[in-house]
Specification:
By secondary structure, the protein is an alpha+beta fold. It is built from five helices and five strands, in the order ααααββββαβ.
């Protein structure tokens, strides 16, 4: 997973991405780093609303979208097209679990190398892959258990 950043580290991270460290941005970013899932804006809002009633759902949406715009986080769509947000900006894949509405990260450098080799073998030229995401739709056999990724 990732290390939780302190308030000062969050301020520095926002500044590094050219953003002012406003109260709303700090609260939303801090919530994202604590959630360890791919939350929707509504889930972020639910987490922060009690302690921060002045932050509206619209502000959460706008803040998350501004984070996406500067590539501080990424946006992932669920199968239904619902926007979810990913704190992990490293190149990785996603598995969407339909019966529990989860999105889990899947890292596989071997798969990336295999796809790049495949494209090269098909003589696809003048193309530099910037990002490759595999989006798998699946169902948990036992919804109570975590997915085993080895």
């Amino acid at each position: 997973m990732h290390n939780t950043l302190s308030l000062e580290e969050i301020r520095a991270r926002l500044s590094q991405y050219g953003m002012k460290a406003t109260h709303q941005r700090i609260v939303v970013y801090n919530a994202l780093q604590q959630m360890h899932i791919h939350p929707s804006a509504e889930e972020v809002y639910t987490l922060i609303h009690t302690a921060n009633p002045s932050i509206s759902l619209a502000t959460v949406y706008n803040t998350l979208d501004s984070f996406v715009d500067v590539k501080l986080i990424t946006k992932v769509s669920s199968q239904e097209g619902k926007g979810r947000y990913d704190f992990n900006t490293n190149n990785h894949h996603h598995i969407y679990i339909t019966n529990t509405d989860e999105i889990i990260d899947y890292h596989d450098p071997e798969l990336l190398a295999m796809i790049e080799k495949y494209l090269k073998n098909k003589n696809i030229t003048n193309l530099s892959i910037e990002e490759l995401q595999l989006h798998i739709k699946a169902k948990k056999i036992n919804p109570e258990q975590e997915v085993g990724i080895y």
